[in-house]
Amino acid sequence: MAIRGAYQTKQKEVIADYFRVHPDDCVTAEAVYAALDARVGMTTVYRAVTRLCSEGLLRKYTGQSAGEAALYQYSPCGESHLHIRCLDCGVLAHLRCDVVGDFTNHLRGQHGFVLDEGQTVLYGRCEQCEAKRKQQTKE
User: Fold this and answer.
1) Percentage helix, strand, coil for the chain under 3-state DSSP, each rounded to 5
2) Contacts for 71-74: CB closer than 8 Å, 24+ residues apart
3) What are the structural domains, with CATH classification, of the chain?
4) Which is nearest to 127 in space by CA: 100, 88, 99, 94?
5) 123: alpha, beta or left, given left = phi > 0 and alpha = psi -120 to 50?
6) CB–CB of 105/93 below 8 Å?
7) What pLDDT tens digit does each residue of the chain (139 aa) get?
8) For residue 132, with 0-12 CB atoms within 10 Å meaning exposed, 13-18 middle and 19 or more buried, which class applies?
9) 83 and 94 in contact (C-beta within 8 Å)?
10) Phi, psi of 6 (to 5 degrees)
């Protein structure tokens, strides 16, 4: 007997392949739909990303504010890393460096707190937006 929602469809595989080809991108369901050029419907994209998240192939990052679209990213191995997100342009980027490991170890050792890196996003401004902001304050 098949488990409800555990079946594989051609459309779901097309969507999974999109994320496999773009493993570092954090994108909205709408962006996936646009990139697939109408090979699958929007409702199918939403259903597929939800299933792929529950199966562990994708990670979901909720928007900064109510009404903002969630972002999805390929994550087959569950590799932990933090993300940084620009408050101005909204770009979401990976933060992979040794200092992150030192920080998580510090939290565990000094504060008894185990950080869920996959759900942690640091907010600030990217280099371009910060430069633009500084330029605007000079004017």
Assistant:
1) 45, 15, 40
2) 71/26, 71/27, 71/28, 72/19, 72/26, 72/27, 72/28, 72/29, 72/32, 73/19, 73/23, 73/24, 73/25, 73/26, 73/27, 74/19, 74/20, 74/22, 74/23, 74/24, 74/25
3) 1-78 (1.10.10.10), 80-139 (3.30.1490.190)
4) 88
5) beta
6) no
7) 334 444 568 899 999 999 999 987 889 999 999 999 878 899 999 999 999 988 888 888 877 677 788 889 887 655 567 888 888 887 877 777 778 888 888 999 999 999 877 678 888 999 999 999 988 888 7
8) middle
9) yes
10) -95, 5
Q: How many residues are recorded in the chain?
A: 139
